[in-house]
Each structure stands twice: as C-alpha cells, then as structure tokens.
Amino acid sequence: MLKLYIGNKNYSSWSMRPWVLLKQAGIPFEEIKLRFDSFDADSGFKTQIDPVNPAGKVPALDDDGLVVWDSLAIAEYLAERFPDKLLWPASVPARARARSVCAEMHSSFGALRAACPMNIEADLTEVGPLIWRDKPAVRADVARLVVMWRALLSAHQGPMLFGDFSIADAFFAPVCMRMKGYALPVPADIAAYIERLSALPGVKAWIAGALAENDFREFEEPYRLKPA
C-alpha cells in the first residue's frame, strides 16, 4: 500500500495537497504523520523523515520502496500510477492549463503564504482584515487568484476548476483554507467555489483531522498565545 508522510494537518499546507488528492480520488494509502517540532538536525521530525526523504521535508510518498517527494512530483506520479482516476483533465489543452496553474501555485503567491500561514483550527477573522488593509502584495495575490479561478470556472462550467475534481483543486485547497480562515474578501462566485471545495469529502476529512489534533505549535503561530 502507498504510504504518505505528512506533517501536522493544522499547519502543513503542502501535505494537504497530495493527501486530499488521494482521499478524494479514493486511492487507498497509509498516512504517516510526523509531528512538527524544532526541525533541528537531531529533532524528532528530522530523525524520522531524513531516512525516507533526503530533502528532509514532507510530503513524501513511498510506493513499495520508491519514494517520491515534493507535492507536484507526487501528483504527477499518482496521475501516471492511476490513469483510471483521471487526476488531470482529459483534454490536452485543459491538462496543459491545469499543469500551468499548479506550477504557478507551486512557485508564486509568496505574500499570501507568508502573511497568512495555514491554520485551520484558529479563529483568524480579526487578523485577516488587518493583513488585507496593510499588505498590498496579499491583495495582489488574491486578485490574481480571483482572475485565474473565475476564468477556469467559466471555461469549464464548474463546479470545480476544470469541471470535475482534479489535481488543480487539490493544489488550491490550502489557499481556500487561508481565505476562509482569515476572512479575506473575495467576490461571491469565488466564495461559492471555496465553499464547494471545502465541502468535498476529502477536504472535509482533512479539516476534521486538523481540528482533532489539538497540537499548538508556538513557532507556527507567533501571532497568538496558546489557546486556553
């Protein structure tokens, strides 16, 4: 069986992508969660992940001894390994577009990532408006996402970015968690997509797991005190 190494569900946006993809596609896998810690060379996290992934990071996928790391590489591998699941769109132009937007997610939106780290458990609805007010780069990132998502939803007639659920939706699931968690303002049609994606069984299962962790990591949340 496939083994997927992930970090804390509450915080690990990159782990969320392949996990949701596997879950939503109905591909059986074993989850191996490694608790985030100091990330020092001799930390528990590094001691466990380094023998699996030479990059020392999650996610990592182990398929009977073949280890694939980096979320985009994992998604590509799964699409080849399970062609019947149609993880990429069927048409060549749509696949090219889907790969393009996933690659853009992989390499861009740094302001949104830095200012709004994923935190599913926390109530950040008061923090978000301040970030929105003070950080024009975050507003620019969200504006780009709105244009991208609106064009895809219009071209493929929803409910997901390419009609049916695909790798692209899995890749943007953590972005939706950020937009919801920080209450970032988006148009009604984009908010509706965020709600549809959040309601997918695979995404709901990740959210439930994140809420059940109760594992406050202070270094991940410098902006708030430990919950009571």
Quick structural summary:
This protein has helices at 13-25, 44-49, 71-81, 92-107, 110-115, 127-134, 136-156, 167-181, 188-198, 201-213, and strands at 2-6, 29-33, 60-63, 66-69. It has 228 residues and is an alpha+beta fold.
Straight-line N-to-C gap: 39 Å
Mean pLDDT: 94
Per CATH, which architecture of the largest domain? Up-down Bundle
Quickly give the structural class: alpha+beta
What count of structural domains?
A: 2
By oligomeric state, this entry counts as single chain
CATH fold label of the largest domain: Glutathione S-transferase Yfyf (Class Pi), Chain A, domain 2
What does the radius of gyration come to? 17 Å
Strand arrangement, major sheet = 2-1-3-4
Strand content: 5-15%
Molecular structure report:
This protein has 228 residues and is α+β, with helices and mostly antiparallel strands. It folds into 2 domains: 2-85, 3-Layer(aba) Sandwich (Glutaredoxin), CATH 3.40.30.10; 92-207, Glutathione S-transferase Yfyf (Class Pi), Chain A, domain 2. The chain has 10 helices and 4 strands. The protein has helices at 13-25, 44-49, 71-81, 92-107, 110-115, 127-134, 136-156, 167-181, 188-198, 201-213; strands at residues 2-6, 29-33, 60-63, 66-69. It has a 4-stranded mixed β-sheet with strand order 2-1-3-4, with helices on one face. Helix 1 packs across helix 8. The longest helix has 21 residues, at 136-156. It is globular, with a radius of gyration of 17 Å. It starts with a strand and ends in a 15-residue tail after the last helix. The model has no long low-confidence stretch (mean pLDDT 94).
